[in-house]
Amino acid sequence: MSDLLLRDLSRLSDLLEQARASALEFLTALPERPASVRPAPPTPLGLPDAGLGAEDALALFRRRYEAGLSGSVGPRYLGFVTGGTTPAALMGDWLVSAYDQNVSHGGDSLATSVEREALGLLRSLFGLPEDFEGAFVSGATVANLVALATARQWGMERLGHDVSEEGLWGLPRLAVLGSAPHASVLKALSILGMGRRAVQDVPCLPGRPVMDPKALEARLVALGGAPAIVLASAGEVNTGEFDDLEAVGQLCRRHGAWLHVDGAFGIFAACSPAHAHLLRGLAHADSVAADGHKWLNVPYDSGIVFTRHLEQQERSFRAVAAYLGLGPDLLHRTPENSRRFRALPAWMTLMAYGRDGHRALVERGCALARALGEALAASPHYALLAPVTLNIVCFALRSGDAARRDQLLAALQADGRVHLTPTHYAGRPGLRAAFSNWRTGEADLPIILAALEAAASSV
To answer: Which family does it belong to (predicted)?
Structure first.
């Protein structure tokens, strides 16, 4: 062992205390930290021969990079659909690194039992039937990938092929039906060799970004019973709208199609009695994707996939080697053999705050989104592009093109009080504000609105 490693080991308590102090300093300053920044990166350093030791490496990182980190964990980072990190989840995540468990294999630790228990807690929170089996993955992109790989295996088996063993060479194409699926779904189809262009567009209902069930039925009838994968959304990315999962699910059952529900953030509407009706019909799904680092407010990276077709899932992801042993280990459910103990932060926050705490978190986010929507509708500078149905506010400048919108975003970033992401919706360049951080409260709304009004006046 090197002298530096021996020295750091002897000072481990002090080093961890320095890391704790650094984290607390960062988190305590969140109200003043810019929601997002875009500094010029420093000139890259070379690898030191002797090494600096942990204390000096931490100090160097803080000098070079900490000021350039965004306040994405803070209350006014409304970009993408990003949650923060609850205190319990942060505790759990720190312990994940300390414990450093291998959760691919269940033979040497109870860590896999924690993952299975956390999946059961989430299944209960979402109202999924007991026959849904799950796994933690790195995010909704991989959750969609796992679900669609399982759907591909199912569909090809119906056609008499084992794609996990034979590959796709020379095999027929599976029908994939959907209305404007999320980019992560298209990415998954690309990785799986099915292709982004595999999606056959199903028309939307007039004026809404949701699937027209009658149009879907016509497509399924035309397939004449051939296997198909139907892509549904529980929380469309611009508006938060939901496909009619009951109607779509009934059609999938009637025609023998696979129903995949991308519920990256919207599935957490199940926490709220006021919004749970949006998920009516979720039990018809064959697979479901969710994202823990969104409304569950656990650290990156955390995704969850559920399917009710575990045999096909394990055929797709089975890893066979003598050193791996036998048994129903979680490595057979995901692309990874080496898996971080990412279930622990989720388990911690679910146990710490329970059903009531997560209901309150979801309902507050929805209330804040409605309040911002009402204020923007009354603004002389902004107009809503869609009704606020959940936690997403989709809006635009009343006048101006994409260039002016981009100038507005640049002004907001320079101001630093709030971070939003761009979009294009209903034929217009727009902006999105997503409320999913547990820290965001009513006191933030006047600050957000003041920043928006100031930016609009400056462009």
So the answer is: Belongs to the group II decarboxylase family.
Q: Looking at residue 418, what is its pLDDT?
A: 98
- SS3 assignment, position 203: coil
In angstroms, the Cα distances linking 347 to 136, 287, 302, 343 are: 11, 22, 12, 6
**pLDDT, tens only, 82-140:** 999 999 999 999 999 999 998 887 778 899 999 999 999 999 999 999 999 999 999 99
Count of C-beta atoms within a 10 Å radius of residue 288 = 27
Cβ atoms of residues 338 and 138 within 8 Å: no
First to last CA, the chain: 59
Please, are residues 342 and 85 in contact by the beta-carbon 8 Å criterion? no
The CA distance from 106 to 96, in Å, is 16
β-strand 175-178 against 228-233: which pairing, if any? parallel
Tell me the pLDDT tens digit for each residue of 275-327: 999 999 999 999 999 999 999 999 999 999 999 999 999 999 998 887 776 56
SS3 content of the chain, % helix, strand, coil (to 5): 45, 15, 40
Query: Residue 29 contacts by C-beta under 8 Å, 6 or more apart in sequence?
Result: none
Please report, as a single letter, which amino acid is at residue 103. Answer: V
